[in-house]
Amino acid sequence: MRHNFNSGPSILPASVLAEASAAIYNFNNTGLSILEIGHRTSWFQEVVAEVQATVKQLMQLSDDYEVLLLHGGATTQFMQVPMNLLNANDTAAYCDNGIWGNKAIKEAKVWGNVNVVASSADQKHSYIQKQFTIPNDACYLHYTSNNTVEGTQWHQPPTSHVPLVADMSSDIFCRPWAFNQHSLIYAGAQKNIGAAGVTLVVVKKSILGTLERTIPAIMDYRNHIEAGSLLNTPPVFAVYVMLLTLRWIVAEGGLTVMETRAKERAAYLYQLLDELSIFTPTVVTEDRSLMNAVFTLPNASLEKTFLELCKQHGMIGIKGHRSVGGLRVSMYNAMPMQSVQALGDLMIAFNKSHQ
Length: 355
Fold this sequence. Notes:
Shape: globular
Order of helices and strands: EHHEHEHEEEEEEEHHHEEHEEH
Oligomer: single chain
Structural class: alpha/beta
Distance between the termini: 28 Å
């Protein structure tokens, strides 16, 4: 059995893979592949409509919000958010909790002023700074809800008196969340909600249309809203896989069930990391991620030995991000507890043999 701990693109439910595979040959008994149907056909428009409705259902959002399915990944949103929300002389507040928040800050500075109101860089992003002051003139506050590389996670949204913007790429729909406290949420699909290639953007319409600058047509959220996410050819197959994944989440019991499973997986693994002397978790306890557990071994030689052992047992994706090194176990929604327990057994044996 292969155990997929990749940080993204990451594990998908087996049923989603089966349905998506079948649709490549025959989508909904049309006799056509999902890869070759027109994006403006009623067949695909029904897919888009169901994705949008299911997202709003899971987020419990009102009609004030629009759901967009875009290209470019979260990295494009680092630029597209300030392009749509920030005038050249305006200021946005940002939280710097790791590599992705830092990248978002750099892109925002191209379009306006940035006030970094919170940063965990002083301790190598091993915690979340939760107490900070947001300037009254800030156009919005941006934060990254889960830091995939560093293994930290917000366990409740920051309190904000200005519009709240969240990059939720690596923990969206892993738990119930105060989605309606946000004015804009974006997420690359390839962690919890589908395959790489489509980006979910949920935006409150009232925050748009206040800019002095001209926005390129393809970058203007309002144009995508008006076109129903069909302004240009969308990533049709990735959107369909997102639909299948959202259906799976609903069928499994929704976000409450996703959260229960996530907490069970994380509690089991973190207990081992705390108990086994050879492993050292790098994140303060209260800010540990349910999705990405980051830890180290005493030296590079032991890390290499452990990774080779994992490979021999069909466990992939455990090497840490190239920017920080170490080890990382990603446990997204589709991760079975059986895989985490198999890894735990290996960790116990490794600890015993290297004490």
